[in-house]
Amino acid sequence: MAEGRGNRNGHVLVPLAALIRRELRSEKMEKPSVRYGCAAQSKKGEDYFLMKTDCQRVPGNPSSTFSVFAIFDGHNGNAAAIYTRENLLSHVMSAVPRGLGRDEWLQALPRALVAGFVKTDKEFQSRGETSGTTATFVIVDGWTVTVASVGDSRCILDAQGGAVSTLTVDHRLEENVEERERVSASGGEVGRLSIVGGAEIGPLRCWPGGLCLSRSIGDMDVGEFIVPIPYVKQVKLSNAGGRLIIASDGIWDALSSEDAAKSCRGLPAELAARQVVKEALKTWGLKDDTTCIVVDIIPPDDLSTPPPPPKKQSKLRALLFRKRSHDSATKLSKKLSAVGIVEELFEEGSAMLAERLGNDECNKQSTSGLFVCAICQVDLAPSEGISVHAGSIFSISSKPWQGPFLCADCRNKKDAMEGKRPSRVKVV
pTM to 2 decimals? Predict the structure, then answer.
């Protein structure tokens, strides 16, 4: 039976099922295999993780499958970590416009991740609970890896050639000078714990609250200058694949990124995760919750064994990040893939929503014809929406009547995070 039939204009009409089969065959040929493993040792019971490999960009279409891996390291209780694990993915997906092709979907992810993180934080704070959590959230779609993070859990990439790269930024006040300056400019105070006699001890903390991190989800008792806006990095791996190691600070306090990667090379993902935890405990002991996820992105023709420890290679084979050329993206991608180079597609760490949400050339509308808040996705009448750029001093080209738009509550949240006025999060 023929797969398609002609119409009166002479064009061949192909049934949807046939298109899906074709796409599925194509994806099977081109998409890598994803294998993963997790290991953990609990000290406080505040580490949580998420591993989900059956997510779909298009519901019901198996060829649109992508995977999500995440670690949430709670503090001052586990409520924020549990809530974030249960809600962050759906909040991110609700912020992605419907009907996008795969490439457009990947391009929309960084903005959707920002919206999803802020919405999760806003909703959790409305519950009136004071715990907080880090979040390192990884989306793997084919060869493209998108990572969003707040706090000091970390994701590293061990790619072709044995070069190790960090795909996150630690938001610890002790090490991150830019974040210290941002917190101070937004109304927080940064300093060490003072003891009797005026001596200062311990790491740098943010006051009020005494948190060592400058970004997290939750922590409503600390101050709105502790923001949930994630650092986001998106890369495209070469066709040699690579290994992701995602872990809480129980690992990174004990091991460097290079040591963690080296400790588990040549092992399958599940054993590799156990080995990283074992090495961390051997070095540091069980002083904190210690969780590790290892994700192997493996070329279709190399599924039998994990990648062996790398041999010495030339500089050309070493891992390099290259900005994508908009003029010759396809040619560049093929060249980079041929020499085992990882291509950087997106990187942004600003804590300013006006910069992270960008400009809407055409305002996003819901099916009801109303405008939609870019953060919480509630419907807005045209007279209700407040531009994310209204009153912004960070972009001369921004126009206060240009989208994206925020509802009054989300606009208030934005101003509070930037130190413009106290937050008025509604507690239910």
Answer: 0.83
